What does this fold into?
Amino acid sequence: ILILALESSCDETAASVNLNGTEVLSNVVSSQVKLHQKFGGVVPEIASRKHLELILPVIDQALVEAGVEFSDLDAVAATYGPGLVGGLLVGLTAAKTIALALKIPLIGVNHIAGHIYANFIANPDIEKPLICLTVSGGHTDLLYFASRRGYKILGSTQDDAAGEAFDKISRFMGLGYPGGPAIEKAAQSGDPSAVDFPRADLGDSFNFSFSGLKTAVMNYINNQQQKGNLVNKADLAASFQAAVIDSLSSNLMAAVKKYNAKSIVLSGGVAANQQLRKSISKQTTELGLKLYYPPLDLCTDNAAMIGAVAYYQYLEKDFAELSLSADPALKL
Ligand code: ATP
Ligand code: MG
Ligand code: FE
It folds into this structure.
């Protein structure tokens, strides 16, 4: 089954061709990061215009790199939410047009399911039950999967997403956009125990909170500046990163124990963070469990992960009507 998948929910215009879900024949990602950098974040209107310019060349490149033609395709998939409505409409409209012209099924895919399924590309048979930590620019969720389709949400962030916290603190520290990689780089030469930032404790729940941490970091910087002290950016970045990682991993490991999980799965852009991977990997090994995370290029937004979900939807004949609308606030 050959599926062309499109992703355009944020600031990456992406197209992939997947054979039977897991065989990625091409995975083209055109990032607009440079365009948004000078604004310190994604500007939705600029993003939609850029998606419009890029979607057709990106699709063409995905077909060429895969060595296939439109007429070879069995289905076309697109992210229809969550995300920025302008961007979603570009990818979804392109997919609808292709579906209509080629008379092939249209598959609407949830972007967050895509982030999770990025793990099933290299490892389709991860042992269940599994606990999945999804940490991206807009989401922070802890999920329990008894089977691939049967999951429940154990906890979510009550305020900022983990990636959002990285982006906001990076911007405040003048480290630039996107914040995750910038903070990770600055933290490499810093001491994670230099400043003892708070780790939110939301009691028995598996929920997360990062706004208190964000305020604590900002207050710390402001206080130091008022006292005329130079702020050590490396120490600050390392201490902030350590606080985020502690909050994420303590909830994750508590859930793993409570639900007797066999495997742990990380997904989303923040799962690209090496310190997060290391910290969780260490705790996982101690428990004798298996840890999975996608390769770096499948952590942040891409279309191969959308194609991976689409394949399973294809098998279940979970097709969309051409009237499918973009849903910016789509839930899992
Ligand atoms: P969502 O998937 O929730 O709709 P999104 O698509 O913007 O949001 P992703 O593309 O999955 O999010 O991930 C981008 C986020 O990941 C950004 O917030 C970015 O700062 C963060 N990120 C990327 N690399 C790293 C890293 N190495 N360490 C920490 N965070 C990172
Ligand atoms: Mg992005
Ligand atoms: Fe994403």
